[in-house]
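We modelled the chain as a single entity of 66 amino acids. Its sequence is:
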Amino acid sequence: MLGRASTLVRSTLSNSIRYGSHGGVPGENLPFGLHNRYRLTAWFCVFFGSGLTLPFFVVRHQLLKM
């Protein structure tokens, strides 16, 4: 019984991997393009830079309000 179940699971998994639409091409499932490295670098700097600098601007704003 366990042998039949494991064979069924193995065949189902291999078929889903074989006939799946995604996979095989690096970066195919990412929401941004990897073709232009300079644009990618700029977007990463903007994305991470905005999140890391926001607390400093909030503190500066609060200190200048006094």
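As a brief sanity check on the tokenised model: The mean pLDDT is 80. Helices lie at 2-18, 37-65.
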